[in-house]
Design brief:
The complex is a heterodimer of chains A (213) and B (200). Helices cover 23% and strands 32% of the residues of chain A. Chain A has 213 residues and is of the alpha/beta class. Chain A starts with a strand and ends in a 5-residue tail after the last helix. Chain B has one domain: HAD superfamily/HAD-like (Rossmann fold, 3-Layer(aba) Sandwich). The termini of chain B are close together. The mean pLDDT of chain B is 94. Classes of the chains: A alpha/beta (213), B alpha/beta (200). Strand 5 of chain A pairs antiparallel with strand 7 of chain B.
Chain lengths: 213, 200
């Protein structure tokens, strides 16, 4: 059991771009809701927190059926705040290391296992591929030295692992909380983010073939 | 160390079973009590009206019998342990009657930190209900920052006064109105107690 870290899954948003009238945490991924696919990868982590907002009751009902010992954190301002607000809400009494995971991200299970099994501070990156990416500029040591909306070597996946004591709560995008902590090591992770229906179809195909690119 | 004062609902937050339905088993009126309790939890009947209705149904039972039964009701032990270990900063806030719950409160050493409704004991039967605990007013009366832990509709206004409001759904579902004002929800008492310890 991993006891020195808190994993925070941010599921508060409405996911309107997906256009299926449901929060992305509940979309079906080959027979199971997205949130269950994520929780299955986190069985070894003692402290898992889910930030809920839109359709909170439904997300809670599904998640606690899988695992009762979850902490649910509420972000009622999900319409007007960024991912940092949800993440910050879940920081109270968190463990020494904190891992961020967006509720719309499918991760290759082996890559996720590698990510949560070491204790270094780091950021998860992938090949740029989404419509509106947060890019990361790297130095020669492959450390992230800047986030950018225009240029970068890798796309930020939303995954990060940093020490709790170094984080300052914010309500904008989560990368604003990480920026003061740069440079940070990168870890390459195979992922699919679901924003649009096209993303969803592509993610299902990717998941069906074993989360391999 | 924080300045938080912790206010706990009794029924299904401290206890593993709902108290009034348990009492009603003694006279075979469980269904009736459960129906009123459910409606109250959902906010369909005002708490005061429902509470007096339930007291009336149960008032034919000996006060001593009820007090003994309540004192033996299974508890959420980790949550209760937190309260006992931090007695000075913890209060029980409940609509339940003093003459019914005094045995349990004494057993836990919480009688002096129990804010509840009161009734007269008339020869071992429930006499006049003297006061009905208003949880909102109770929470308002504290000057310190509050952590409130509950599960029912009548905990909502108390929770809205809290700096940190927690729903505990380990025994029965957290009432929808409470779900709209809480900051955190737990369905596992160990996890809930560990979180509370982090707030000390």
């Amino acid at each position: 059991m991993i006891t020195n870290k808190t994993v925070i899954i941010s599921c508060a948003g409405m996911g309107t771009r997906l256009g299926i009238g449901s929060t992305k945490a509940l979309v079906d991924i080959c027979g199971k809701p997205m949130i269950i696919r994520q929780l299955e990868m986190l069985d070894e982590v003692e402290d898992v927190r889910i930030v809920v907002g839109y359709q909170a009751q439904k997300v809670i009902d599904v998640a606690k059926e899988y695992r009762k010992d979850l902490t649910f954190c509420f972000n009622y301002n999900y319409k007007t705040t960024g991912t940092a607000a949800s993440f910050s809400k879940a920081l109270l009494c968190a463990k020494e290391l904190v891992v961020s995971l967006d509720g719309d991200l499918l991760v290759n299970p082996q890559d996720m296992k590698a990510f949560i099994h070491d204790n270094e501070e780091k950021i998860g990156g992938c090949i740029p591929g989404t419509d509106d990416p947060v890019l990361m500029q790297l130095n020669e040591k492959k450390e992230v030295i800047a986030f950018s909306r225009e240029k970068g070597d890798l796309e930020w996946t939303g995954l990060s692992q940093v020490r709790r004591e170094r984080l300052t709560p914010d309500d904008r995008h989560l990368y604003f909380m990480l920026e003061p902590l740069l440079p940070l090591k990168t870890q390459f992770v195979r992922t699919r983010e679901i924003d649009t229906y096209n993303d969803y179809e592509e993610a299902i195909a990717w998941f069906s073939r074993g989360c391999i690119d | 160390m924080s300045d938080y004062i912790f206010l706990f609902d009794l029924d299904s937050t401290m206890t593993k079973k709902e108290i009034l339905p348990e009492i009603s088993v003694l006279i075979g009126r469980e269904k009736e009590i459960r129906a009123v309790t459910e409606s109250t939890m959902k906010g369909e009947i005002p708490f005061e009206e429902s509470f007096l209705k339930r007291v009336k149904i149960l008032s034919q039972i000996s006060v001593k019998t009820v007090n003994k039964l309540v004192s033996e009701i299974p508890l959420n032990e980790e949550i209760v342990r937190f309260m006992m270990e931090n007695h000075d900063r913890c209060y029980v806030v409940t609509g339940n009657l003093d003459i019914w719950i005094s045995g349990l409160m004494n057993k836990l050493g919480m009688m002096d930190h129990c804010l509840c409704s009161t009734a007269r004991d008339d020869n071992d039967t429930v006499g006049e209900v003297l006061t009905i605990r208003n949880k909102y007013a109770t929470a308002k009366s504290f000057k310190e920052p509050l952590v409130v832990i509950g599960d029912g509709d009548n905990d909502s206004e108390m929770a809205a006064q809290a700096t940190i409001a927690i729903g505990y759904g380990g025994v029965r579902p957290i009432a929808p109105s409470l779900l709209n004002v809480i900051d955190y929800a737990f369905y596992d008492e160990d996890k809930c107690a560990a979180f509370l310890r982090g707030l000390l």
